[in-house]
User: What shape does this take?
Amino acid sequence: MSDILNQLQEAVIAGDPEQARDLAAQALAANIAPLDAIDQALNPGMQIVGDKYECGDYFIPDLMMAAEAMKAAMGELEPELMARQEQRQILGTVVIGTVEGDIHEIGKSLVATMLSAAGFQVHDLGVDVPVSRFVEQVKATNANVVGLSALLTTTMRNQEAVIEALKEAGLRERVKVVIGGAPASPDWAETIGADAYAENANEAVGVVKQLLEV
Ligand code: HCB
Assistant: This one.
């Protein structure tokens, strides 16, 4: 891995937003593709942060600072990611959000950015999104895809609740539902009747394209 990407990963682990922003800008200046910076530095950095939290080396404030550092770096990388998108034909309309009770936003935002960069019109509802809001937005935007993010074992049930609510509103046949987040899995997707599970943002783009046959 390049020296800049190494340092960028370290800046996320250290929870240093300024350094992370600078290094992301340096990576772009050195002609490193934004996606490589995300895949090789930011994501593994957050993974290490998660491991440190799990084994008691890091606490909540460390997680928050790491998240701030990742967001700062994304602020630099995102415009370039979008600019590299050549085809602007709209491939489909996506409503995406982190389900109710859950405030983890980084992974959901990354999926939203990547789908947008791939040519989808994306309505990002944010975090802690009530079930009813997903239904309203599917109606309002005529979406054909719903992305549901959940990072907690306690909130993944709300992915199921959204699918049930879509059924009750008579909208389920009209949309493809893709789920993701640390506790989700292909088995969970099958259990709750989602159309697919995506392990990361890249996979989400591939899966959505496959589902819509675009
Ligand atoms: Co948070 N947290 N957290 N956290 N957190 C996790 C998720 C744990 C796994 C950490 C651990 O214990 N090992 C854990 C959950 C355990 C569990 O339920 N089994 C946990 C916990 C317990 C908590 C709190 C309860 C802690 C507390 O307060 N006691 C609390 C919950 C608050 C709440 O939501 N109500 C909490 C809070 C926080 C913050 C606020 C400090 C911070 C979030 C800041 C923010 O987002 N602005 C945070 C963070 C940063 C994490 C970890 C360290 C990283 C998450 C992350 O951003 N990963 C995480 C540990 C981990 O996941 N390893 C830890 C990076 C992104 C890029 O990956 O997996 O989110 P991702 O997304 C991927 C992928 O899943 C997929 O694509 C994305 C991009 O590649 N994907 C989708 C995601 N959504 C998709 C949707 C689709 O449609 C398709 C694909």
Observations:
- The mean pLDDT is 93.
- The domain at 3-83 is CATH 1.10.1240.10 (Methyltransferase, Methionine Synthase (B12-binding Domains); Chain A, domain 1).
- The beta strands are 93-98, 121-124, 145-149, 176-180, 196-197.
